[in-house]
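EI: anyone free to look at a 574-residue chain?
SC: sure, send it
EI:
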Amino acid sequence: MNTIEVIIENTGERRQVEQGTTLAELAGLLQAEGKQGRTLTQLPDCQNPILCALVNNEVTMLDYRLFNPKSVRFVDISHQEGYRIYITSLCFLLYKAVKDCYPEVSLSIEHSMSDGFFFRIMPRNQENEAATPLPSQLEMARTIREHMLELQHKAIPFTSRQMLVEDAVKLLENENIPETRRLIGSLSQLYIEMQFLGETPHKWATKLVPHTGVLTQWDLRAYSAGFLLQCPDPKTPEKLRMTVETPKLFAVFEEHHQWAKLLHVPTITDLNDVVRQHNEKHLIHVAEALHERKYATIADMVGQRRGEVRMVLLAGPSSSGKTTSCRRLAVHLSVLGFDVKQLSLDDYFLPRERTPRQPNGDYDFEALEALDIPLLNQQLQQLFAGEEVAIPTYDFIKGEPYFSGKTLQMKPNSILIVEGIHALNPSLTADIDDNLKFKVYVSALTQIAIDQHNIIRTSDNRLIRRIVRDNKFRGYSAFDTLKRWGSVRDGELKHIFPFQEEADIMFNSALLYELGILKPHAEMLLKRVPQHSEEYAEAQRLLNFLELVEPIETSAIPPTSILREFLGGSSFEY
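SC: here you go
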C-alpha cells in the first residue's frame, strides 16, 4: 500500500493516508475518530457538516482524490468559502427544481437581498401568444419548494468533470441557459470544468457541496413580481437570515437591472461582445451620462427643499465611490446656486488611545464610537448658526487629530455635504434637527451578471475596486486588502447596511463597463498573493472570475468618472 503525508490544518496533525483516498473519506475518518475520542481530530472549527476543503489553499470538492502530499483544511458553512459553495449549490438545486417542474420557462436569478436571492420565472418564448399561461406565483412557489425538498431528501450528489469546451457547449444545447452556452463557447481555453447535479449539467462560478442532503436550511416564497430564495445565516446556520424589508434598495436593483437590459449588456458575454466589436467607448459615454443624470436628480431634490435643508449626509460601504460622489454632487449643487461646503467624518476620529477595540484587541475603526461625536455635533450647530469653525484634520500616521488652520463658515445660501460610512446613522447627528438633513446612500450595486444564474455579488465589485485603489494610493498589496476585507465587511453589516433605508435617495455607483477597466490592474495584483496564505483561495476565485472579462483600455474613461477614484487621473482633488 502506497501512502502519502497529508497535513490536517484544522488540528495541525500530519497523517499518512493511502494514495487515492478522497477528501470525503478522510473527513469521515477524522470525524469518526473524534467522536470515539481516540485522537485529537474533532475538527473544532467544523461544528457543522463539512462542505469542501482548501487543498494547498485552493477550494476543492470532497470527491477529490489525494495522490500527492497536500495541506488540507476542511471547512463548513461558517467559513466564507463553505458558505459561498452552499449558496451556489442551493441555486443549482433551485435551477433543477424549476427545470423539472416547468421545462418551458426561463429562470433568472437577478440579485441578492438581505436574506437571500430574488429571482423571476418567465415563459421561454414570451412573444408566443399561444404559450400556456403560467400558474399563479403562490402555486409555482409551492410546487418548486416541494420539489426542492424532494431533491434534498434524496441526497443527490454534486459532481464535476473536466471536458473539452466544444463538448461542454454541445452538452448545454438542450439546457435552457443560452447565456451560459454563449459564454463557454467564447472561451479561448481547450478544457473546462463542468458541474452536475445527478445528470443535470451546468457551469457555476464556484465549487459545490457533496450532495443535496446537506442543504438543510433554506426557504422559497413569492416576493414582489418574482420569488425569494431565503438562505441560512452563516453565523447561526441552523437559522435562516433575518428578513429585513429594503424597498428602496430593491427599487434601485430593479431600476439598474432594467438599464442593463435596455443597453443590451445584462451579462458578461454581452459586455465582451461590445468590446470585441470596438463599441466600448459608446457604452462608457452612456454609462457616465447615466451617472451625471442621477447626480443632477439628487441636486434637484435638494434644491426643492432650499431654505430647509442645510446639509447632505452621504454614506455608503467601502469602495462605493463616496468621495467622488461628494465632488460631483457639489458641482451640481453649485449649478443651482448653492455655496457648497464639504466635511469628511474621517477628520473626526478620536485619538488612537481613545479608539474602541475589537474582541481580538485590534482597533475598531469601523465603530461609530471611534468618532468624536460630541465635537461633530457642536461644530455642526455652530456652523448652522453662522459661526466660523476651526475644522480638525486627522493624522492617520500619528493616530491623532490636529488643527491646521482650516475653517468653515456657512452663508445663507450654503449647504454642507458630510461624507462618511456612518453618515446615515441617526446617532451620529442626534443633536441636529432632522428637517435640516438630506440623506444619500451610495453603493456599487453590480448591474451585470455572469449569466442567468450566476450573479456578480456587489461585495466582489467593491472588493476589486478596493484592491486596485489600496495598491495605487496606499501601497497595500492584494494580500493586505484581502486580509482586512472580512473585518471591513463585518463593519458594514453592523454599522452601514442597517441604516441604508434611512436615505432619501440611493445612488448606484456601479458602471456597466467597469470590470473590463479594472481587470488588468486587479489581475496583476491578485497573482502576487502567496499560495501559503489563506487569502490565496479568495485571490484565485477572483482571478477565475476576471478571466471571463475582456479588458478595456483605461484611457477611455473621463477624468470625472467615479473609477478615477480607484485608478488615479481624476480631475478632482481627494
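EI: The longest strand covers residues 105-113.
SC: 👍
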